[in-house]
Amino acid sequence: MTDCPNGTVRDLLPEYAHGLLEGNEAALVAEQVAACAMCREELALLGQVNEGLTRGAPRVDVAAIVRALPTAATPRLAQTTSRRWVSRHVWQYATAAGLILVAGSGIVWKYEPDGQVTRVADSSHVATTAADVAPSAASMSADEGITFGGGLSDLSVDDLQLLLGQMDSLRTLPSTDPQSVTPVIAINDGGKTL
Amino acid sequence: MSAGNRDVDVQLDVTLIARWQRGDQRAASELVERHAQALARFAAAQGVREGVEELVQDTFVRAFNSLESFRAESSLRTWLFTILKRLMLDRQRADRRAKSQVELDEGHAVQEFNALDGLVADEAMQRVRQAVDRLSPLQREVFTLRVTEGMAYTEIARVVGSTEGACRVHYHNAMRAVKEYLSDD
Ligand SMILES: [Zn+2]
């Protein structure tokens, strides 16, 4: 088997064989292959080698590999499941928040790593230490970047959705870093620290 | 990869990674689907006889565990091959240690592995396989990446830890050696 003297084309044959060349390069190689028996021979050899190596390789079980992968990192905002969760729960939460406001009280939710929501500073459900409760106006870890002052009564439905969406994304953070999944969200009512 | 445009493939991977990072687990399936078989092919062509699937799986697990740090300077495919190659090297070292122990224990040389010969029934294919097996390890890596994946020399250089120019030379030397072996009948 003789080598074609056109080194440029010979060099590009593997990419040509995989259909990876474009424009001028593709045209150049196509023209040479059509006109040159040595190039056609080498192209045929490339196909043979490719087939030999491909045919002998074991088939991998894609599903098994996927099962072994870590689950995706949960995004901070606007994740699909988060949105669904919010739309399911936003009215429940809005209602709950409303009732509490009517009662002239405020709430502090604590999100536990297992996804449980604990209401703190609600006299019937105190389940955490005072040190865990964030002070005054709503806050999260700096990383999560949600802060706002004012009371729940100032929030529109959209604001509530945003807040709940962000709380949800915290709730669903991966459990690999337990330290980061115990943020405390405190909402005060009209500036009163609870 | 078989699409006509390398950039389209690279961009699709970037999009799939972003989807996975937003929580779409199907994107992970698509990424594995796109690259797993090529990785298996590469490992087998380098003489890995057992546990090819395990190697491929480990490659993806490592990659997905550090996708945060993946910068799209090189393609995902190049990165995956680089991880696989590192894992193969680790395993080779471990195997070598185990083999030398066996040789010491049993006083005989362990047979050089040849993964695919038994699996490729066709005689012409067997010859091709033998021709590839006879290449030096580096030549074989460069040659198989170029022939089975159509990989560019820049990408190959990253995977094998060499330069583009050296890879071009390795490829052409390998091609010459394969031709010579096949015409030696
Ligand atoms: Zn030619």
Walk me through this protein's architecture.
The complex is a heterodimer of chains A (194) and B (185). Chain A is mainly alpha-helical and 194 residues long. Among the domains of chain A are: 7-56, no CATH class; 89-169, no CATH class. In chain A, 46% of the residues lie in helices and 9% in strands. Chain A has six helices and five strands; from the N terminus they run αααααββββαβ. Chain A has helices at 7-17, 23-35, 37-56, 62-68, 80-102, 157-171; strands spanning 107-111, 117-120, 138-139, 147-148, 184-187. In chain A, the strands form two sheets. A three-stranded antiparallel β-sheet of chain A has the order 2-1-5, with helices on one face. In chain A, a hairpin with a 5-residue loop joins strand 1 (107-111) and strand 2 (117-120). In chain A, helix 1 (7-17) packs parallel to helix 3, helix 2 (23-35) packs across helix 3 (37-56) and helix 5 (80-102) packs across helix 6 (157-171). Chain A is elongated. The termini of chain A are far apart. Chain B folds into two domains: 1-111, Rna Polymerase Sigma Factor, Chain: A (Orthogonal Bundle), CATH 1.10.1740.10; 118-185, Orthogonal Bundle (Arc Repressor Mutant, subunit A), CATH 1.10.10. Chain B is globular. With 185 residues, chain B is mostly helical. In chain B, helix 4 (76-106) runs parallel beside helix 7. Mean pLDDT of chain B is 87; it is low at 107-115. Chain B has eight helices and no strands. Chains A and B meet through helix 1, helix 3 and helix 4 of A and helix 1, helix 2, helix 3, helix 5 and helix 6 of B.
